[in-house]
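REQUEST ID: PR-0412
SUBMITTED BY: lab tech R.K.
PRIORITY: routine
TASK: structure prediction, single protein chain
INPUT:
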Amino acid sequence: MNKINLSYFTLLYFFTLINLVKAQYPTVRERIINLPNFDEKTLHYGYFVGVNSYDYKFEYNRDYYVVDKYTDLAVESNTGFNVGLIGDLRINKFFNLRIEPGLIYTQRNLMYPDLPIFESNNLKREIKSTYIHIPLLIKMSAKRINNFKPYLTFGFSMDYNLSSNSNSTDDNLSNVFRTVSKNINYELGLGFDFYLYYFKFSPSIRGIFSTQNELIPDFNENSPWTSNIKKMFTRGFVLNFTFE
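STATUS: complete
OUTPUT:
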């Protein structure tokens, strides 16, 4: 599943959920309430599984466009997977503090422009990332209607990239692309709580945006793979399914 298919599936899925919202919120008839006291718990736990699509945002050196006339690097995003645990602390009726440590696996392929400085077999770099992802989030919920409730999440997270190659003695000359091993992100998300008979099910989408430069330059300061890149930032899109 590529990035386009993942985005299409997500949009279709959430349009369906929005139709469910419209069906539930105008309805004032009482229904059988599942888990009526679930949100009164001070502390509860859960887990999540999901998929992701990661990209990069680049900032280039000043001469990249004007003098050298180079084109942007293309990023091929592959669908990865997420899995993790949830700890939820109730603040009040509408706000919860959540920590969601998990493992994120993703892959991005950098496609360099076909220029004379590159050999034809050196235009592509595969960047595989395995993140230990630790977000601290605020969950802001709307009022529960029957067995349904929408919510927003926002906060910060720390990533530890186990596949960063940050300590490698090789670089792109040996087909090794190096990135920093630690990163700080901010996150924004939207989700829906569905109260089922035995548990609460919550699909959600979330954007993850790094706040610091992740690029480690090659040892050669004139390297064609890194010398033109000033900064490189992760941009992630995550679809999670939560069970609490």
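NOTES: Residues 3-26+41-243 form a domain with the Porin fold (CATH 2.40.160.20).
REVIEWED BY: pending
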